[in-house]
């Protein structure tokens, strides 16, 4: 099989043979026509052709006695050895090395006042070359004028993508192609629609199109490449986008870049041999006096746009922002940088940036310390003994254990050795609760509850998830609620302790609903008593018995009390209706999972569906489906609880 290199070498040798003629004599109506013919005869680009005029042509009088130019042409420099492969188009339809998509050769015909012009493009890649018949068919589609068939054949053979004159016609300017310009879309787009020329008319040229745009005040976003492509290969009666406006680009808002971790949940708990390790946990983000806490990146002005007619479309500048500082934080004079004024912990309270000192208890919370209430973070290096309270606006971390006491933090609560509340402890966190275990206590978390050794006879509520990880990670007895998920190794016990698990509802809303129902019952009873008292006095009045001033006073007091109770009942009922509506619209379905065993005696509640477990299950997940609790294969929680905190 002949290879590509061999084929190219053969074609080159043929071109060398064809070029042995040192000169050619050609004729043409104009000098340009003659040189075009010479270029084709010599198979050379026009720039490599030199010539001598043997006979000067003349247009004659109204076409009579017209005399053609006679030109002797020869290669520039007189030496063919200078020619290189790149001077010739050897494209024979093979795939292009550039990877460009294959395309057949094509012919373009232009009708100009000077005559009929033909351009033939070579194929690309595996495309096929244009034939003479195809070129003539394309010419006849555009004009009935006589053309030089021999020249057409030469142009097809050369296929150099240049327009060459192939014939003349009697030019009639009144039949030129008609151009129409329309500006639409709020002056953001301009479309050109052309009507083909009549007999003797010419195709539009580039300058004519540009003049049309200018005369219609189209000065911006002009697509010159598209216009040039249209001029070279006109497409008539089809609207073509020739100009497009530029939309304004609004400026970016100013933004505040914090120099510390703002997400208090951005840390992980690490498991070691099936146990969660709290030893390396450090919730306090320490800063020192003078440290940069935040910087403001200023807003951008944006970039104006423009219509095709040059009207400016102003950009909207970005909005400003400011660093909102609170305690122990100062701003620079230009209000672009915030600095810490003291050593301590940086925290966000709402939108304000604060630096809180950390209160450290170097031992137990006991009679020695008394109850602790602190506007910041509290670190207890010992334990919290029975009967004491610790409250903090930041986090609470206890290295030891927690007994029968109250812990209340707006942030997270960490208890390294666990909580044994003796049925009287309350641990409440606005964020998450992390503990070795929770036993005989009430725990409430605004985010999640994570334990390693299990939950025993406790009342635990989490706004998101309750996760038990570790070798003894079981939930035994008590009530555990979470909006999204409960996941443990085992649920319940062999002894059949009643264990109630509930997901798919908002625990806080449900708890508030219970409180409101109780309040409504109390108010309803009070109202009944008031109404009964009023009815008793009204019966006396109807019996035509004279009422004493004391009775009248009591009646008026009861009447006023009825108004107040009725108003309170309406308020309570409105809140009940709102919460019930919210709970009914909740899309959270929730799931309850056990990687090992679910024992009999466990009560599963998923949304509004209930299941009382009577027989053991192994490695299962309970979900809600079509109004019932469905038992599926165990699906491990995707909650990442390994420790990794930015310091």
DSSP strand content: 25-35%
**Largest pleated sheet:** 21 strands, mixed
SS-based class? alpha/beta
Radius of gyration: 46 Å
Low-pLDDT residue intervals, each spanning 5 or more residues: 79-97, 277-284, 642-647
* Terminal-residue CA separation: 71 Å
Descriptive report:
The structure is a single chain. The protein is an alpha/beta fold. Among the domains are: 4-87, no CATH class; 106-167, no CATH class; 173-244, no CATH class; 255-352, no CATH class; 510-585. Helices cover 22% and strands 33% of the residues. The protein is built from 8 helices and 41 strands. The strands form 8 sheets. It has a 21-stranded mixed β-sheet that branches. Strands 10-14-18-17 form a 4-stranded antiparallel β-sheet, with no helix packed on it. A hairpin with a 5-residue loop joins strand 17 (329-331) and strand 18. Helix 7 runs antiparallel to helix 8 (549-585). The longest helix is centred in the C-terminal third of the chain and has 37 residues, at 549-585. The two termini are 71 Å apart.
What's the short story on this structure?
By secondary structure, the protein is α/β, with parallel strands linked by helices.
């Amino acid at each position: 099989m002949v290879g590509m290199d061999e084929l190219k070498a053969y074609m080159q040798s043929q071109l060398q043979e064809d070029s042995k003629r040192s000169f050619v004599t050609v004729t043409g109506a104009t000098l340009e026509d003659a040189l075009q013919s010479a270029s084709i005869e010599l198979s050379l680009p026009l720039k490599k052709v030199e010539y001598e005029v043997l006979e000067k042509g003349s247009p004659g009088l109204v076409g009579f006695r017209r005399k053609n130019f006679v030109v002797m042409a020869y290669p520039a420099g007189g030496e063919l050895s200078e020619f290189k492969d790149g001077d010739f188009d050897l494209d024979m339809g093979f795939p292009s090395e550039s990877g460009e998509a294959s395309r057949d050769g094509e012919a373009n015909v232009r009708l100009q006042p000077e005559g009929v012009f033909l351009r033939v493009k070579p194929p690309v890649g595996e495309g096929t070359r244009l034939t003479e018949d195809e070129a003539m068919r394309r010419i006849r589609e555009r004009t009935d004028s006589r053309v030089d068939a021999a020249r057409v054949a030469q142009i097809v053979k050369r296929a150099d993508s240049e327009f060459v004159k192939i014939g003349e016609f009697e030019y009639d300017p009144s039949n030129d192609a008609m151009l129409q310009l329309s500006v639409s879309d709020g002056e953001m787009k301009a479309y050109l629609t052309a009507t083909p020329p009549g007999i003797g008319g010419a195709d539009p040229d580039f300058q004519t199109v540009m003049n049309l745009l200018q005369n219609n005040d189209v000065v911006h976003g002009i697509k010159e490449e598209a216009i040039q492509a249209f001029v070279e290969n006109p497409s008539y009666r089809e609207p073509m986008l020739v100009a497009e406006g530029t939309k304004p680009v609004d400026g970016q808002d100013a933004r505040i870049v914090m120099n510390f971790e703002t997400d208090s949940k951005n840390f992980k708990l690490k498991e070691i041999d099936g146990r969660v390790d709290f030893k390396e946990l450090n919730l306090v983000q320490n800063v020192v006096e003078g440290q940069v806490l935040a910087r403001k990146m200023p807003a951008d002005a944006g970039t104006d746009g423009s219509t095709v007619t040059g009207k400016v479309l102003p950009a909207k500048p970005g909005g400003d922002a400011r660093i909102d500082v609170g305690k122990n934080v100062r701003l620079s004079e230009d209000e672009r940088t915030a600095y810490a004024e003291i050593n301590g912990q940086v925290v966000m309270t709402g939108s304000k940036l604060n630096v809180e000192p950390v209160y450290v208890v170097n031992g137990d919370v006991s009679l020695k310390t008394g109850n602790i209430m602190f506007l910041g973070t509290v670190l207890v290096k010992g334990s919290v003994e029975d009967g004491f309270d610790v409250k903090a606006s930041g986090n609470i971390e206890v290295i030891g254990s927690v007994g029968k006491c109250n812990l209340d933090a707006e942030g997270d609560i960490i208890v390294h050795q666990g909580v044994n509340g003796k049925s009287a402890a309350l641990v409440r966190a606005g964020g998450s609760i992390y503990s070795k275990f929770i036993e005989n206590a009430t725990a409430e978390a605004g985010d999640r509850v994570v334990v390693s050794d299990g939950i025993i006879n406790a009342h635990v509520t989490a706004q998101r998830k309750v996760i038990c990880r570790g070798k003894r990670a079981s939930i035994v007895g008590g009530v555990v609620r979470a909006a999204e998920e409960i996941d443990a190794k085992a649920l319940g016990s062999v002894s059949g302790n009643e264990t109630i698990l509930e997901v798919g509802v908002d625990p806080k809303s449900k708890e508030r609903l219970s409180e409101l129902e109780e309040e409504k019952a109390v108010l309803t009873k009070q109202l009944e008593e008031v109404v009964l008292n009023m009815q008793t006095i009204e019966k006396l009045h109807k019996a035509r018995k004279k009422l004493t001033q004391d009775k009248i006073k009591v009646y008026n007091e009861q009447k006023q009390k009825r108004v107040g109770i009725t108003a309170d009942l309406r308020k309570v009922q409105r809140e009940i209706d709102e919460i019930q509506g919210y709970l009914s619209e909740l899309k959270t379905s929730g799931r309850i999972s056990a990687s090992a065993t679910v024992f009999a005696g466990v009560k599963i509640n998923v949304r509004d569906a209930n299941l009382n477990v009577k027989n053991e299950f192994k490695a299962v997940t309970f979900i809600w489906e079509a109004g019932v609790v469905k038992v599926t294969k165990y699906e491990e929680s995707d909650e990442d609880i390994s420790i990794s905190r930015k310091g």
